[in-house]
Amino acid sequence: MTRPGGTRGRRGPERAVAERPAARPPRDPERPPARPVSKARYRRRRLAALLIGLVLLVGLGLGARVLLYDAGLFDVEEVRVAGAATVAEADVRAAAAVAPGGPLAAVDTAAVATRVARLPPVESVHVDRSWPHTLTVTITERVPVATVTTAQGPALVDRTGVVYHGAGPADLPRLTTAPRSGDPATVAAVGVLAALPDSLRAQVDSVGATVSVPGAPGQVTLVMAGGEEVRWGAPERAGEKAAALSALLTQPGTVYDVTSPDLPTIRR
């Protein structure tokens, strides 16, 4: 059915309707507006927060001290020794002088290392705490390369020229140079021994060195197990001299000179 003056099935254009913003609640006339925080009040709040934080830190520090030092929960129960081969572990513990029962945190590890390093065969020491109850002392022993006779009896010489008393292999070469720790002649002689390949070092019976001019390098001489003399010269170019000596020893001779590895000689 069609209404007069109208068209069937036809609609007019749609109109966009804007939504109104929600009405703000009426302001409470009895509530005063918020006032900005003054600078003085802000400083007081900040100071209060700092004081609270400081009190907490002090409390934590006191609690940690009680746990580590006073409660007995982290006391020393064992001194463990590592790296000892010829040095007795009992000697290391005695030198460390750390009594069981004291707080592990109170142990002066640097002082312990200094005391243990006074043992003649010890080259270096490292001390650390192994929580909760163990102090670990790790030592590195000296490596002897020669023996020497001193006024106190037989002694060892390590690869750095330090003379000390201790236990070492029975087949070490003899050092004929006057035994003085750090002496240039001693350092030169043991430096050559340390640089030799094992196959050559095993053939050496004795080693000595002389220094003709102060400050000059030591002049090293080796005596082999068969009585042959090796004029080595200065410690420099040890690898080249060792290679040259290995080749010379395949030929008969009484004196082998590798002072200049470029021109080695044999005296028969």
Give structural notes:
By secondary structure, the protein is α/β, with parallel strands linked by helices. It has two domains: 78-141, Ubiquitin-like (UB roll), CATH 3.10.20.310; 144-267, Rossmann fold, CATH 3.40.50. Helix content is 28%, strand content 24%. The chain has helices at 39-70, 89-96, 109-116, 184-195, 198-201, 238-248; strands at 78-82, 122-130, 134-141, 144-150, 153-158, 163-164, 174-175, 204-210, 219-224, 229-233, 255-257, 265-267. The strands form three sheets. Strands 7-8-9-10-11-12 form a six-stranded mixed beta sheet, with helices on one face. A hairpin with an 8-residue loop joins strand 8 (204-210) and strand 9 (219-224). The chain is elongated and about 120 Å long. The relative contact order is 0.07. Mean pLDDT is 84; it is low at 1-10. It is found in: Membrane. Residues 11-33 have a biased composition (Basic and acidic residues). Residues 74-142 form the POTRA domain. Its main location: membrane. Keywords: Cell cycle, Cell division, Cell membrane, Membrane, Transmembrane, Transmembrane helix.
